[in-house]
Amino acid sequence: xxxxxEIPKHAALEPKNSTLSIExxxxxxxxxxxxxxxxxxxxxxxxxxxxxxxxxxxxxxEEWLAAEKMK
Length: 71
Description:
The chain has helices at 22-29, 33-41, 58-70; strands at residues 19-20, 48-50, 53-57. The protein is of the alpha+beta class.
């Protein structure tokens, strides 16, 4: 069972319009940041590349997570 398919009880993200870093998304999903980066590069997770950094919108991550649970 993949831990990313359940929202961790301790997870607390910023307000819905907030932008998250790879590290913050990784912590929220309880996976390594390298996995989040690979997912972003491959289009598996909703992300925007700004310069050399990946940025994630909290609302998009929550919607993506809910959709993954339905699979």
